[in-house]
Design goal:
Layout lengths: L1 H10 L4 H10 L18 H11 L5 H8 L4 H17 L3 H10 L7 H5 L3 H8 L5 H7 L4 H9 L2 H4 L5 H9 L6 H17 L1 H11 L5 H7 L5 H8 L1
């Protein structure tokens, strides 16, 4: 089974010292957003190499076993593999359904950010995006982050409507990780169409969470940054 080969190879690269650093970086302590997540200290480049070696042999059952693992690197590698399958497989609808069935396992920010726009977002280009609005209202932090990060797939095609609407819906979100994600997407819009970003800021900058605002204006000239911050 390909799953066993992936797990075995990842295990040969584990590093206890690096794992300890990652446990702190991804906030795995009690009461933190990544509480209970377990790392073995395998770098992302190594995970991508393992993905390249085994993804063609992996079925969705193999990916499911990886996503069900309590070990973070197993889940992230599983998402790298799923993305590869999505890019090459003709049945993209099935893979998107599989992805949405596994949101409980896509439960840290790097897991979301490495997959949402490449799978769900890419699939929704030119389609009904109702699912993103449903996810934006979820009680689950990671589903809300999936809703906004998925929009990057539309932003790169200079389609900003849904991204702006979802950022607006998330203005009152309480979590810093949502503030960062929405600010990031707004900044990406601004790189492509400064007027669209400034229209959003003129309307909302006084009520935007500070982190969201700071992320969104990061690339603006200093004079404009100061005006919006003021």
């Amino acid at each position: 089974m390909a799953y066993k080969n992936v797990v075995r190879e990842l295990g040969t690269h584990k590093d206890a010292e690096k794992a300890s650093v990652l446990q702190r970086f991804f906030k795995t302590g009690k009461g933190e957003y990544g509480e209970g997540d377990v790392f073995i200290g395998v770098s992302v480049p190594v995970q991508r190499k393992v993905t390249g070696k085994y993804w063609k042999d992996c079925s969705l059952n193999d990916v499911q076993l990886l996503l069900d693992s309590r070990i973070h690197e197993h889940r992230l590698t599983g998402l790298f593999i799923l993305t590869k399958i999505f890019e090459k497989d003709g049945d993209k609808k099935k893979i998107v359904g599989f992805y949405l069935d596994n949101t409980k396992n896509i439960n840290n920010w790097d897991l979301v950010d490495s997959s949402a726009h490449k799978i769900l977002g890419d699939y929704l280009v030119g389609k009904d995006k109702r699912i993103l609005y449903e996810l934006s209202k979820s009680k689950d932090l990671w589903e809300r982050r999936i809703s906004v990060i998925s929009c990057f797939a539309f932003i790169v095609k200079k389609d900003f409507e849904d991204a702006l609407r979802i950022c607006e819906l998330l203005l009152k979100d309480k979590h810093d990780l949502i503030h960062k994600a929405t600010g990031w997407m707004l900044r990406e819009i601004g790189k492509r169409d400064l007027k669209e970003l400034e229209l959003f800021l003129e309307k909302h900058h006084k009520v935007m969470p500070r982190t969201m605002l700071r992320y969104s204006i990061e690339k603006l000239p200093e004079k404009k940054r100061k005006r919006f911050l003021g």
